[in-house]
């Protein structure tokens, strides 16, 4: 990138000139309201219900399904007076003729069968991340989707819809960071990640994230978001994956690790991604750093700062009479530039707004069965490496 162009881009960064995802599509496409069934009514399923209610005129939740009676009872109490049907068997819910969409927000091990059944029932599908439990399931679901082109399938990787993350992707693509060689991503907490259990026999169903039968653990539940963003921003997949971890603090009967570190090598990019999570320290919480020869982006969920290298910082502080660029406003005394002037909304709102557009246009979502499948495969490889202490290599058949 020429110096003049670089300074122009710097001026754009100070404002909001870089392109952002379009939102608020209802006025463009009329007043079609889609009937939604939510499969899995834990924290995520009930949370998505609240998100859908923030988009009036687009979606109406008409069915709720869960295998746990107390969750259905809670939903019935909360939504008393609403025309919502309740099911404990999702196959029965899929028989509803006026049902347009199924939101799958169940434990990971159920995603494939439930997603498959939804598509084959002729319903549109919003399936939470990660899309599937195994690599083979990801490939199979992508194959099923190809046979049902009228069904819109979106995967719940919300960062693909955030204006902040869109802007960072554009910075990367424009060369603003220079040659990126390192990604450092963490999602830490100091908590056992355990939920209260109403009865001993419900332990594995309620605390499913802790058991390998149901869960992909920290890699699937947390780090998959950051992995997916790297795949999107750089249009890449890992060439090899190596992970290490263990149950290093909470020896409470869990099977999934409470402390992991996964290295993904992107050979075609000349880049290494380090993705880590622990349940034993929350100081850094969520952080996401993308490091290039011209500068580093440091991201939180809803705000980010660009830290230029010293030489680039000097260029950005100058006034270029030709380009008309002006001095930038720096973030406090940190030496960084704010990427957006304001915090973004919940990423699920942007994702659902765009899901509506895709339904109206019968178009492929930004986060779809193919790129969502590749991220699910990367997570499955990470977990295999963690469990087997092996290096896992990307195979040609994974390139959906």
UniProtKB/TrEMBL annotation:
One of its GO terms (molecular function) is lyase activity. InterPro entries: Gfo/Idh/MocA-like_OxRdtase_N (IPR000683), Gfo/Idh/MocA_oxidrdct_glycsds (IPR050463), GFO_IDH_MocA-like_dom (IPR055170), NAD(P)-bd_dom_sf (IPR036291). Residues 35-157 form the Gfo/Idh/MocA-like oxidoreductase N-terminal domain. Keywords: Lyase. It comes from the Bacteria. It holds the Pfam family GFO_IDH_MocA. The keyword Acetylation does not apply. Residues 167-297 form the GFO/IDH/MocA-like oxidoreductase domain. This is Hyaluronate lyase.
